[in-house]
Amino acid sequence: MQVGDIVKVLRTDEKKIVVDLRTEIVPISGDWSRSDEMRMRLMCQLAGESDRWYSKQEIEMFSPRVQR
Questions:
Q1: Residue 18: how many other CB atoms lie within 10 Å
Q2: What is the mean pLDDT of the chain?
Q3: Rounded to two decimals, what is the model's pTM?
Q4: What sections of the chain are H helices per DSSP?
């Protein structure tokens, strides 16, 4: 997934453009008090939603950005 891809938000079926990406380091268990093991997850910010980040489980690729 990259900036410029068009994705579908699974809960609303809206199609939006990915405008930013970030990598987060989070505990595997989801519990910060027992944070022995960590994992990385890619989060995507979509057009029109500057205060919301989506994980790959919440969106699906609709149309990848075409490199020219």
A1: 20
A2: 91
A3: 0.81
A4: none
